[in-house]
Design brief:
It is a single chain. The chain is mainly α and about 250 residues long. It has one domain. It is built from 10 helices and no strands. Helix 3 runs parallel beside helix 7, helix 4 crosses helix 8 and helix 9 packs across helix 10. The protein is globular and about 50 Å long.
């Protein structure tokens, strides 16, 4: 019961904080924060505590396939919105995510997922940097229901994924862990409110943050048996944040 209340408390608070940071400091920072292993870290933590360490470790290959699929979805959306409306592109991108995630987690290989993820990170950083950048972004009107809707959606996905984990199995549970339930609403809202420049900044931040997510899962796979659940997740999260900050700093002038 304690874990249930932790899920209800932590997830919406994180979504609220990231949404406010994105409003205050812009899409790139929002993308960086949303791209870090926040939702996926919570999912893996609760899977480990509720289903056991072996279950969580068996979910890592699926999570890496899901991460590559998430990045493929961003690329799809970035290019699809050049000719399609936002709603149509977002709907097709979600379908595309399901197809790619299924292929990578059921027919792919761990190293294939890692290679695809790294290739897509490079592609997204380059492609987002080539999007037009207006001199100023228009001041937008934020609706009162935006952040509560994001908080509810993020919490619902975490609750559903962890509650159904035993039935879904480790592979599918892992595949669902990286679903960008925080990043997707942020990206679409940024696109609607700030145009392609706002959306591209969010995509770029998510791509940079994905490097940390990749490191997070690899550290879980290599250290959880030796160190235990909580120490490994804390260390992996710290490493993910450090990598994201360093890479963002290196790419800041580009």
């Amino acid at each position: 019961m304690t874990l249930f209340y932790l899920k209800l408390a932590i997830t919406p608070l994180l979504m609220w904080a990231i949404s406010l940071a994105s409003r205050r400091w812009g899409g790139l920072l929002g993308g960086l924060l949303a791209g870090m292993p926040i939702t996926s870290g919570l999912v893996m933590t609760f899977l480990s505590l509720e289903q056991g360490t072996d279950f969580a470790l068996n979910a890592v290959p699926g999570a890496l396939g899901g991460l590559a699929a998430v990045l493929a979805t961003y690329a799809f959306y970035l290019y699809a919105t050049r000719s399609l409306a936002i709603g149509a592109a977002a709907g097709l991108a979600i379908v595309f995510y399901g197809l790619v995630a299924y292929v990578l987690t059921h027919w792919g290989h761990l190293y294939v997922s890692i290679g695809v993820a790294l290739g897509l990170i490079v592609l997204l950083i380059i492609a987002s940097g080539r999007e037009p950048k207006p001199e100023t972004l228009a001041r937008v009107r934020h609706r009162y229901w935006e952040i509560p809707l994001r908080m509810v959606s993020a919490t619902a996905l975490l609750m559903i994924t962890t509650h159904l984990a035993a039935w879904l199995g480790p592979q599918t549970s892992g595949m669902l862990a990286p679903i960008p339930v925080i990043a997707w609403p942020l990206m679409v809202f940024a696109h609607v409110q700030n145009g392609r420049a706002g959306m591209a900044a969010m995509v770029r931040g998510n791509a940079i943050g994905a490097v940390g997510v990749l490191a997070f899962y690899l550290m879980l796979s290599g250290l959880m048996k030796a160190l235990g659940v909580i120490p490994t997740i804390v260390l992996a999260m710290g490493t993910a944040v450090a990598l994201t900050v360093v890479l963002a700093g290196l790419l800041r002038g580009r």
